[in-house]
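Hi C.,

You asked whether I'd gotten around to modeling the 169-residue construct. I have! Everything is below, sequence then structure, no commentary in between.
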Amino acid sequence: MLAPLLLAASVAAGPSAMPDLRLQEEWEEPGWEEEEKKPPRLFFSVYAGDAWLDGGAGRSAPNVSAEVSWAFRRLDVGLQALGYRGAGDDRNGWARVGLLRLTQRFHTWRGFDATFSLGFGAARTPAWIGWYQVAIGMRVPLGPLFLGGELSFEQLDILRVAAGLGVAF
């Protein structure tokens, strides 16, 4: 009974008492045009994690990596160095990997960058072999720094999960 009286009193009081129900100006996602004005940037990142050999069914191997890449509008071109402990024939030695990586960045509504990467190169495990990598990841920008995570499938049926920190110059 009190609700209809309050509604009638607010209508009688005039438009200043009523909340503004008009739609606000619609928000538009920032376009690629804004990013095109920015010059390309240099990214440097380091990652550490764990890798499961034989497609996840085998033993695990710790890994570390460092990458330097040049960022274009939507594509990063970089060089990545990885190390896997026990991934080759020597279970106590380090398998060293060098890759040329192409990373496609996708901006999300939350301000993160989703990434899809393809890497091609060579590894010494202890003999030299060709190496490939297919990875998906996420970057969380924190000013010039960013936190990153990556899941990749690589040569020798390696499934790698890594997290790291990077900086953009």
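If it helps when you're writing up: The CA atoms of residues 46 and 66 lie 4 Å apart.

Thanks,
B.
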